[in-house]
Automatic annotation (TrEMBL):
This protein's name: Phosphocarrier protein HPr
Recorded GO CC terms: cytoplasm
Cell location: Cytoplasm
Matches recorded under NCBIfam families: PTS_HPr_family
InterPro entries in the record: HPr, HPr-like, HPr-like_sf, PTS_HPr_His_P_site, PTS_HPr_Ser_P_site
Length: 91
């Protein structure tokens, strides 16, 4: 399962929101979650991985979850993106 977002935060994805995403992904032990942008795919369980994407305002980010709780994990990650004002869902 995956959802794609357009980054709306003027600071992009920096340490604080990256931490929120990583903490959320780590709640789902039975599911792997990834962030993909600019042809690069990283685990969402590593803050350095997320920061290495260098996401800035206007960039596109795809969140991917695979595993038994993929639906719950992806919805929780999407909530972080929207509620933290990081991005908006691309339909």
């Amino acid at each position: 399962m995956q959802k794609t977002f357009r980054i709306t935060d003027e600071d992009g994805i920096h340490a604080r929101p990256a931490t929120a995403l990583v903490n959320t992904a780590n709640k789902f032990k039975d599911t792997e979650s990834f962030a993909e942008a600019g042809g690069k795919k990283v685990t969402l369980k590593s803050i350095l991985g997320v920061l290495s994407l260098g996401l800035e305002q206007g960039d596109t980010l795809t969140l991917i979850s695979e595993g038994p709780s993929e639906n719950d994990a992806l919805n929780a990650l999407a909530d972080v993106m929207v509620n933290e004002g990081l991005g908006e869902l691309n339909e």
